[in-house]
Amino acid sequence: MKRLTVPRIRQQKGKEPLVMLTAYTVRMAQLMDPHCDMLLVGDSLGQVIYGLPHTVAVTMEMMAAHGAAVVRGSYHAAVIVDMPFGSYEASPEQAFVNASRLLKETGAAAVKLEGGKVLAPTVEFLTSRGIPVMAHVGLTPQAVNILGGYGVRGKSPEEAKSIVDDAIAMSDAGAFAMVIEGVLEHIAIEITQKVACPTIGIGASAQCDGQVLVAEDMLGLFDRVPKFVKKFGEMGVGVEEAVRAYAAGVRDRSFPGPDQLYQPV
Ligand code: KIV
Ligand code: NA
Fold first, then answer.
1. What is the mean pLDDT of residues 3-31?
2. Neighbours of ion ligand 2 (CB under 5 A)
3. 61 a known binding residue?
4. Which GO terms describe its molecular function (predicted)?
5. Distances (CA, A) of 225 to 40, 47, 123, 222, 259
């Protein structure tokens, strides 16, 4: 199976919705790959994999290691790697050095970065030098220290307008797609109608050109989830039951049993 390419993702605007999920590890990538158009190695791995309070402390090394694992575990989906906080904001040159490193070390197709108008020159710089960029507007979790939390964005008309302007700036700068996170629905609809690239919603609107969720959230593997998460599975319960049965088997010596043991022939 040939991998979906960035140009083909771009062409999906207004057609069949694009399916994206986060993936951080090889086995999860293998399981999700046949069903997804894109796998996002999100910096949400900070919370999900590393137990960090937010994404600010996520490093290039983490993104490179998990990005490479996800590429190794997938054959069909395009893999996109988040640029961690501090790796791209200082200048277009800084962004190019780190984005190119992520693509080289992982084999991913593209990077994603958070931000709007201010980062449009960076998106243009990267795109014109061979690095496809997915933008991320609305609720941008790396800005938690400025925003003071993860509340829905765009409640005032001024903020709504600035989010739409950010999205247009990112699209005009050459972003091949964009995540719209945590905004009032009408903002996501307006952006989807106004920008040239596909929009991928999370807490946004079913009218976006695609959707994304953090896989562990929708699988029931992460306890505290926002309103916009729908649990499509209860894997946490499955893990708990299996571990409980294993512990009982060890304690009553029913495990290992004859099938799991070696004897002389
Ligand atoms: O890091 C992440 O998982 C993300 C998605 C929620 C879009 O950026
Ligand atoms: Na992210």
1. 97
2. 42-43, 82
3. no
4. 3-methyl-2-oxobutanoate hydroxymethyltransferase activity; magnesium ion binding; methyltransferase activity
5. 18, 12, 30, 7, 41
